[in-house]
Protein 1
Amino acid sequence: MSLLLNDTFPITLTATYPDGTTRNVAAEAEWTSSDPDVADVIEGVIHAYGAGAATLTASYGTKTATIEVDVDKTRKLTVNEQNVFMKTDESRQLTLTATYPDGRTADITSAAEWSSSDEDVVSVTKGLLDALKPGTAVITAKYGTKSVKITVDVDTTRFLMLSEDALTLKANETKDIALQAVYVDGSTEDVTAKAKWSSNRDDVAYVLNGRVYANKTGSAIITASYGGKQVTLTVDVDIPRRLQANPNAVSLEIGETANIQLLAIYASGQEELVTDKAEWATSSAEVADVDKGVVTGIDSGSAVITAKYGGRTATVKVGVGLVKNSRPT
């Protein structure tokens, strides 16, 4: 039989006489133990003292009988949760079960020796877990010669998601960004206020608890960190993704003018007419001149008009006096 430490168990020792009658003589028999430090019998009751195995022998009359006793000799240990996910400041009670060679099971949660690989992340007392800060710890429960390990993840994120893929702002404009954590157990949480936020260029755009403040023209990378993961977002301040000139080619006679409109297209899909804000230049002032999008033909030839805005460039090909007017006869 198998017993737990300090267990007691009444045993029946049956004597069968020549006339066929029987009687329990456990309390009357003389008992010896192969290892009294492990177990012995007192007045028909087995007492388990220490881990190990012992053979108990009963002598009565001229006969003997024996029983093998295992104390705290488990076949296996099992815990009710092998992989645990917890939130910071959460508590969780584990249950440790011992299975003995005879198939009997017992709850040994309080009797086991518990330890944590990182007490700063998760502490454990008699199977009670306390999550202290984000991270991962391995809990070990030991009983007798057996042990079992439990992995505990505290606020451990699988990945982070921002509410915006890219952001385009005007100088002095603000925008709130939400950060969502997807945990290893599949659950999600808005961690905007818990995350650590930073910008690689505070002079262009800085961030406080998910709110982005645009300062001046340029690009900045906003980083959000939480639970060992991080995610980034590019913020363009007064910087379009591309410029579109309309038309993109012009034919003029000498002295003739044409208006070119310049459209800034941002990552958000927003469009803005920036003709008057752009910087205009010509490749040949002798052929064509330009002022705020108004092109004037000066002399015969070709020129390229360039418009710059927000770090982007658009070009327009201009031909002056290269196409003669024709009239039907």
Note: The longest strand covers residues 52-60.
Protein 2
Amino acid sequence: MMLSSEALYERLAELPIERRRAIAEAGRQLAEREGLDSPEIPFAFHHLPIALDRERVSAALRSCGAVVQGLIRLERRALGADGGEIRDRLLASLDPPGRRLFELCNFESDYSVERRFRRVDAMIEPGGAGGRVLEVNQAAPAFIHFHDALQRIASEQLGMIGFDHEPDLLAPRVAAWLVGEYRHRYGTGAAPETIAVVSEEGYLYKRLELPAFTAACERAARDRLGCDTAFRLCFPHELSLRDGRVWLGDRRIDMIWRNSALLDSYAGREQEIEDYRRILARHDEHLIVNSTRVWLTLTKDALSLLSSGPVLVQLGFTPDERSQLLDAVPRTVSLAREPDVADEILRSREEWISKPAAGSFSQGFEAGWWHTDASWLALVRERSSREFVFQRFVRRSPGDLCEIDSAGELHRRTVTYEFSPHHVDGAFPGTVLVRARVDGAKGGRIVPVIVV
């Protein structure tokens, strides 16, 4: 039987309730084995995966890829000899910690910029028209072990009801990316002996998922690449500089995968991360991937540039490239740069949202339909500075989800979801996660996707 959402529901409906109860219990046990049983994690292991049509996913990934390439072009232009105006604009939209992080970095190879780890947050357009990209997280994307764990759970549960699903996991791709970066940098066929995966203290999702993901990368390097590379998870204050080399205790570090961002949380402890700051500032001497240089195009004002036809012409994008980007990026505006758009935003407030250019975790998010005309006017005036953007609202994609409760009863849930593929080593893997809202419930849930 061909796998689809409808076929999945029909197969589950045919099963005795005891069998469905066993599938739900297997999901619970698998989630516990994968470390997903923490109440801090927004998962529901009794949800079967969402099945998405391959053509729709391919169209959406083409849109996501166009935006990733657009950001790469924008970054290179901003840091080139004639990019001062764009660079100054992007820097001005960052908050002070973001500017400080950008200013730490003095080098990153084109090879690394193309391949650095990213997560794209988008919506799939109805009818297979493509995707609409809301933002690209290039700093330290979360949900990487969660992606692989949920794909493995989905594969096992689907196998229990007669469907074959071979997941495309992120850990092997990350291992190949990191080994490839090392070989490209040093012109060698050898592999790094030790890679430091540097996270910061206090980041919930990193604390929950990086230990397992780091171990998975080490296994993948050994089993798939034949590389005896050690992956060591650590914090910034644990790294030191001795004799011009990076050390973690008594182990010499050959390269760093930077997953740290919130260095301001170390305020008052600067001496403890002084060496780490020196390491980050010397990318020409130390191999660091996902450098702090990413902050330049992490700002959402970068999307203001990529959704403006005149700016795309100025930046040298071809007509086809401009068409792709204008279709993929909802109109995003910095009123400090385009004050004339304020009248349109005020007239059609239900079609616009606003957020800090340098924000994350939905902090500072405002939707026009939450407001009266008077309060929206006040917000627009307040957010006419360079630190905020306004963006045309894009509705979440609709779908449905099969759910088995603890008694084995089968339910079909209406969901809306955000499409969040990871971009690894210059490409998208074949599987993604979605962040879904079920039946209008508050809060989102992370759900695996299978492409059919």
Note: The mean pLDDT is 89.
Protein 3
Amino acid sequence: MRVCESLDILEKVDNALGRDRDLIKGYITALQFENPSATHHQVMAALQRFLEESCDAETQLKVRKVFAEEEAAYELGLDEQIMAIASALINDDLLYIKILQTLQLNHQQNLPWDTVLNKIQSLVTEHNPTVWPSLKDFLDRFHSQGPTYQLDPSEMNDDVYAAYCEQFLDDPEEADQNLLEQKFNNISLGSTV
């Protein structure tokens, strides 16, 4: 059961580890599949040791991002597309992880939306204040529409849309095609006379 539940996240972690066979082997060993009585705490401690001993800081951050997204998906019902858009808007993995954790805190403690938004604004202002206007707009629309919220790609600027395509689409050519379609979406080739 633990193996089956871990397959989706295993693929994401494999990508975060750069598909390095030795690193993925270390990750799988840390999961302690061979020990059916391993507790969640024991597995998390083993994963922490693995990350600290085997991975550089950048790789650790990528894996932590995967874990944060899995928790947010489970706890908040966020889908991959919403998280890819948020990640592209924020464009800073550490800040993104902190924002996901703040959103989860809202869910766990049932904090008022204004309180959560103020906490997120403080985080963003401290790390990268230039993203706040677009992130606030995204969060407000997401909050009012819930997990089914879909951001129209035409609402994203080119940099955010390119980052979104890079994260969300597996095929770089598909990402390039989507970016071109988005750029030319509002152009009419017909006569306006």
Note: Residues 154-183 form one domain.
